[in-house]
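In this supplementary section we document a worked example of the pipeline. Step one takes a protein sequence of length 264 as its only input; no multiple sequence alignment statistics are reported here. Step two produces a three-dimensional model, which step three serialises into structure tokens for compact storage. The input and output of this example are shown verbatim.
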Amino acid sequence: SVLRGGGTSTEAVVATIAYLEDCPLFNAGKGAVFSWEGRNELDASIMEGATLKAGAVAGVTTIRNPIRAARAVMENSPHVLLTGKGAGEYAREQGLTLVKNRYFFTRERYDQLKTLKKNSRKREQADNHGTVGCVALDQYGNLCAGTSTGGMTGKRYGRIGDTPVIGAGNYADNKTCAVSCTGHGEFFIRAGIARDVAARMEYGVVTLDQAAAGALAKLTAMGGTGGFIALDAKGNITMPFNTSGMFRGYIKSNGKKETAIFKP
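The serialised model returned by step three reads:
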């Protein structure tokens, strides 16, 4: 509806991700997973394909919608990534909605943390996933990508994953594509997956599907799990993953839409 109303891809990405952050079903915003200390620590990033401007926040605990804070960093500051208390203070100065950390609590996520601690079990693959993201192309020909997450259940030592790292979990360039990733963040950082998809298109004569397949193969060869959504400047869409499923969906300007979980 944002795009149909003449809005920009940036506005559409922020509106979509903020909606998902407010929904407790996802590992972002309200309903995010808990750190080892029993807190919700959130990350988010956004990037515009027209200008290559980007903004991100990491390890924030009081910002209701981290994606809005990431946009504020991109548009209203000379920086790309702000963390922790500083990011919260900047969000307050920007007039964004702040909440107590308790706002993000859901019983299901807290029980996951208690189970992990009680059994001292190895993290399940599902603990690495649940990040939300959106990529969009507007009528002005501009791409945008955004990603938001609560990170990894039981994370310690101020761990930050790929979501707020431009080029790892998020990337956009009008010349190639927009990419938003979800999965085991350490592998996405090491492989620079989001940028890798775009680079394969930038430096070689490959399609979006070919670039995505190559990046996913690189991730798989390293032992990483996850997937990503990607959209190029011509409106082509790809959503590959190497796990049993990935919640995903799209809608095109002609009204065609699809949602899916498992592989075709």
